[in-house]
């Protein structure tokens, strides 16, 4: 490694507990990956605290699901933060076909000055989804330079 090489690390931003609700889409399908599957809501907690509202778009190919979460977070202090998470999901254990692991890159967008730093932040969104309970549990990290 040379002296000009910068190390990067992942800093935990927040966790998200989400539930499928079958609501109407809150995002436009334009520019999304795959077909609209459904919507839901949930809570976020950590450096961001509040409610999350989301739509899921997906395209399944050879057992790997190309997915796109999009939506918004409404923080407890009144900010709205939009997000676009794109990645993949799969069933790692054929004995448990309802249990998926999911990994995404995520981009944030907000006009709120308190959270404006998120606009330049690339995130990693990873976690699990159960097709049996329709519950999602994710951890979201910020990609930072040290």
Fold blueprint:
Blueprint: E1 8-20, E2 35-46, E3 50-61, E4 64-75, E5 80-90, E6 99-109, E7 122-130, E8 135-145
Antiparallel strand pairs: 1-2, 1-8, 2-3, 3-4, 4-5, 5-6, 6-7, 7-8
Describe the fold and architecture:
- It is a single chain.
- The chain is mainly β.
- It is built from no helices and eight strands.
- The protein has an eight-stranded antiparallel barrel.
- Strand 4 (64-75) and strand 5 (80-90) form a beta hairpin.
- The chain starts with 7 loop residues before the first strand and ends with a strand.
- The relative contact order is 0.22.
- The mean pLDDT is 91.
Percent strand:
over 45%
Mean pLDDT: 91
Level-2 CATH architecture: Beta Barrel
Number of domains: 1
Order of helices and strands: EEEEEEEE
How big is the Rg?
16 Å
Number of strands: 8
Structural class: mainly beta
């Amino acid at each position: 490694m040379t002296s000009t090489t910068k190390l990067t690390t992942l800093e935990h931003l927040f966790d998200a507990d989400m539930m499928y609700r079958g609501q109407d889409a809150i995002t436009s399908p334009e520019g999304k990956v795959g077909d609209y599957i459904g919507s839901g809501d949930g809570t976020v907690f950590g450096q961001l605290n509040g409610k999350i509202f989301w739509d899921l778009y997906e395209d399944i190919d050879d057992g790997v699901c190309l997915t796109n979460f999009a939506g918004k977070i409404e923080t407890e202090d009144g900010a709205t933060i939009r997000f676009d998470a794109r990645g993949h999901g799969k069933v790692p254990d054929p004995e448990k076909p309802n249990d998926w692991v999911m990994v995404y890159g995520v981009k944030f967008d907000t006009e709120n000055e308190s959270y404006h730093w998120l606009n330049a932040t690339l995130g990693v969104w990873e976690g699990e989804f159960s097709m049996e309970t329709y519950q999602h549990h994710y951890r979201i990290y910020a990609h930072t330079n040290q």
